[in-house]
Amino acid sequence: MKRTLVFVVALVFAFNLVGCADKPPTGTEPKALNFGVMPDVESIPFIIAEKNGYFENRGVKVNIIHFKSAQDRDSAMQSGQLDGMVTDVLAVVFANEGGFKQKMVARNDGNIQFLAGKKSGINSMQELKGRTVGLSTNTIMEYLADQMLASSQMRPEDVSKVVIPPLPTRLEMLQGGKIDACILPDPLAGVAIKDGARILNSTDKMGNKPGAVAFTEKCLNENPEAIRAIFHAYNDAVAYLKNEPQHSYVDFVIQSQGFPAAVKDSLALPQYANATKPDEQIVNQVVQWMKAKNLVKGNYQYNDLVDDAVLR
Questions:
Q1: Which of 42, 131, 188, 283 has its CA 20 to 30 A from that of 204?
Q2: What is the pLDDT of residues 25-59, one digit of tens each?
Q3: Nearest CA to 148 among 104, 188, 173, 116?
Q4: Given 175, 206, 237, which residue is the final one in a domain?
Q5: pLDDT for the residue 24
C-alpha cells in the first residue's frame, strides 16, 4: 500500500512538472505599445525601426499605426487607442487643455517651408503683403507662418490667409496659381520647389520647429523602460539613415508613407539627430502664441508639457 501511494504521489508530481514546463513564464511578455505616425518625414525613423527590427532588438513591442490626418491621429490618442505619436507642441497643448493628459518626450526632425508660387512674382517675404497664403488655422502651420512673417517685420494681418487644410490640395492650388504662396512640409514642399516654387523661409533657416514625439501620461507612468527602449530603437534608425544610401530604402518609404511617386526624385530627408528633448524656448513661444490667440486658458509651463526623465 505504501509503495502504491508513493507511486501515485510521484506520478502527480511528474504531471505537475510537465504542466509547468508547458506554461510560459509569467511577466516576461512585453506589452505592445501602439504608436501613431503621419505621412511625413518626421515619422520615417520610426517606420525604419519597425522594418529593420530595431524595436525587437531593444526588447520592446511596438505597433506602428499610420494616419492620414492629424485629426484622426489625435482622436485615436484621446480615445485610448494610442500610447504615443509623432505630433507637435500645439497638438499636445490642445490635448491637455481638453483634459487628455500627455507629455512630449522628444522633438522631431523635418523641414517646413514658406513657398511662393512660380508665377506669383514674389521673391521675398516682404512682397507677400496683400497676397494670398494657403495654410491651416490654429495649427503648427499657422504658428510657423506667423513666426516667419514676424521675422521679416510683418504682421499676420499683412497677408490674406486662405484656409486649405489638406496638404495635397494646398500644393495643387499653389501649382495652379490659385494662391500666391503657402506653407508646406517636406516632402510635398520638395515637389513644389521642383515645379518652380521659390523658398521664402523655412524652419531650417529659423531654427524654430515645434515638432514633437509625445506619449500619454498613463503610458509614461506605467511603461518608462519600454518608452526608453523605443528611443534607443529610434537612434538605431537614425544611424541607419545616416549611413545607408537613400536608394536602398526610398521605395519602401514612399510606399509605406503613401507619398506621391513624384517625390522620389526630390525627396530630401532631414539630417536626423538622436532623440533630444524639446527646446524649452520653442515650447514657451508656442504657448504664448496660443494664449495670445485665446486658443487655450491654462497657464502651461515647460515641465507641465515635457517629460525629461526618459532621455536622461
A1: 131
A2: 445 566 899 999 999 999 999 999 999 999 999 99
A3: 116
A4: 206
A5: 37
For residue 75, tell me if it sits in a domain.
Answer: yes
Position 12 in a domain? no
Residue 21 belongs to some domain of the structure: no
Residue spans of the chain under pLDDT 50: 1-26
Same domain, 238 and 298: yes
Read off the pTM: 0.87
Cα gap 256→15, rounded to integer Å: 49
Q: Are residues 39 and 124 in the same domain?
A: no
Cell reading at 36: 501613431
Q: Please report where in the chains the cell 536602398 appears, as a residue.
A: 248
Provide the pLDDT for residue 68: 86
Domain coverage including residue 298: 32-110+210-305
Last residue in a domain, options 152, 179, 206: 206
Cis bond leading into 187, ω under 30°?
Answer: yes
List the end-to-end C-alpha distance of the chain, in Å, as a whole number: 67
Beta strands in the chain (DSSP E): 32-37, 61-66, 84-88, 102-106, 112-116, 132-135, 160-163, 181-185, 198-202, 211-216
Q: What is the pLDDT of residues 148-168, one digit of tens each?
A: 999 999 999 999 999 999 898
Task: Check residue 13 and give its pLDDT.
Answer: 39
Sheet with 32-37: list strands edge to edge: 61-66, 32-37, 84-88, 211-216, 102-106
Q: Which residues of 10-43 are buried (b: 16+ CB within 10 A; e: fewer)?
A: eeeeeeeeeeeeeeeeeeeebeebbbbbbbbbbb
**Residues 284, 233 share a domain:** yes
How far apart, in whole angstroms, are the C-alpha atoms of residue 162 and residue 154? 17
Give the CATH number for residue 153.
Answer: 3.40.190.10
Residue found under cell 514633437: 212
